[in-house]
Prior knowledge:
The chain is α/β, with parallel strands linked by helices and about 300 residues long. It has 2 domains: about 10-195, Formyl transferase, N-terminal domain (Rossmann fold, 3-Layer(aba) Sandwich), CATH 3.40.50.170; about 205-290, Roll (Methionyl-tRNA Fmet Formyltransferase, Chain A, domain 2). Helix content is about 25%, strand content about 25%. The protein contains 7 helices and 15 strands. It has helices at about 15-25, 40-50, 65-70, 90, 115-120, 155-180, 215-220, and strands spanning about 10, 30-35, 55, 75-80, 100, 110, 125-130, 140-150, 195, 230-235, 235-245, 260, 265-270, 275-280, 285-290. It starts with 7 loop residues before the first strand and ends in a 12-residue tail after the last strand.
Amino acid sequence: MINDTMNIIYFGNGQRGVHCLEILLKEKYNISAIVGHIGDSDVVRLGKKHRIPTLQPRKINENNIVGKLREYSPDLFVLAGYRQILKKGLINLPKLGIFNLHGGKLPEYRGVAPINWQIINGETKGGCCIILLDEGIDTGDIVEQAYYDINVNDTAADIIDKQLEIFPPMLIRSIENIRRNKLTRVKQDLSVGAYYTRRYPKDGKINWHNLNAKQVHNLIRALNGPYPPAFCNYNGERYNILSSRLLDEKIMGLSGRIALRNKNGTVVIAKDKGLLITDISRQDGTKCSHKIFKLGDDLE
């Protein structure tokens, strides 16, 4: 049991990092220090606004950084979107442990980019959770987990919005439970789940010959958000495919062929049937009409 002045060191990045930090500050939790990534860190900017000490180490596990964090006598670390991997010296530093806010359901989606992978795999139920960090990658005990629907046209941006609603109250409950010594811990069955590896911008290339219409649609919406979008090549140029819709009508033809057009978009044939492409842009992000794709031509 600890008192209400428990010292929290917050490690964060991106929308999740900023939003959850805002809630903790609003609820008057004692954030002793904030750790962000190097460069222009939105979490660090928020910390400075509130006159909280900030750090932006290039390598989080260096001895001098561990020493600086030890000076705060931390009770708890909270990780929200922070990308560096903490090693044993840091893991053992806070008295009560480390909460890591993970954007996928566990144990099914350990590793990197779980929001994207859940959509790519066609999941209709997604999850996000808080775990106690250990030396593995997303293998620690689960202390909170919540689930939500992934609808057929939900994008990664939509799922991020859903998680931004879910995470703050889940984090508050976890902090209050550990403060009152009432935290529940559920060990993961690692034989059930999988570890997903990092995705690269090149992985967004649409292979019309190998992916069916639903798989292409899932890839497009999985990358619609703050990520490099799905793309294909046409007449020697790269075009970003930003949104699509599955068709009730079965339209057949050669894979990659620009087949038909209607008022809502252009139909391109995937491995099994046609998919309606509704929104595209050039490689530099400039929006352009789907009508730029000429009927009878092929996308690569």
